[in-house]
Amino acid sequence: AQTVTQSQPEMSVQEAETVTLSCTYDTSENNYYLFWYKQPPSRQMILVIRQEAYKQQNATENRFSVNFQKAAKSFSLKISDSQLGDTAMYFCALKDTDKLIFGTGTRLQVFP
Amino acid sequence: GAGVSQSPSNKVTEKGKDVELRCDPISGHTALYWYRQSLGQGLEFLIYFQGNSAPDKSGLPSDRFSAERTGGSVSTLTIQRTQQEDSAVYLCASSEEGVSWGGEKLFFGSGTQLSVL
Prior knowledge:
The complex is a heterodimer of chains A (about 110) and B (about 120).
Chain A: E1 3-5, E2 10-14, E3 19-21, E4 24-26, E5 33-39, E6 46-52, E7 60-61, E8 64-69, E9 74-79, E10 88-95, E11 100-102, E12 106-111
Parallel strand pairs in A: 2-12
Antiparallel strand pairs in A: 1-4, 3-9, 5-6, 5-10, 7-8, 8-9, 10-11, 10-12
Chain B: E1 5-7, E2 10-13, E3 19-24, E4 31-37, E5 44-50, E6 65-69, E7 75-79, E8 88-95, E9 107-108, E10 112-116
């Protein structure tokens, strides 16, 4: 069965600094996709970044990048140059041949 | 429409009543999910429709919960004999699965906030 674990319920960072959110997962499949979604106070879920498991190169999207360690089944999100608008819940998600499931989320607060 | 639409945005009901929550996915999207998000919690998977396949109902918490997807488009989540613990935000999402297997972006609606008094 698929599982996704986010062990940091809350994180905080000062504006312009860098923060890393952790995620571990489990799947019996060799090929799968991993995602980070952002949920701001508006409740609207937004895709931040995605990674294909068979690609060794870590995905990057502007200030957002991932550290994908396939053997360790770890998928952390790094946010560089944090901005106030990054304040939100962040969810890690996994999709293999089954449905897409989410972790319990990390609440990120960016302070001025 | 341009995005996933959910209605109502807010629903207040009395314990024991039935409620229906509606989701209009993006036209052409074959996959549709329902998730439940309790206050300050993560997204709990409820049910997954993919094309003409039998839905994955493994996340439905009890037989009071059911969902349909008519004509491969609109979906309705029904909760019978609502209980206070059913209070949560119910999120619907759709994707164009099959285009790039597994990696498709999910488009979410804004959710229905259900409050059971």
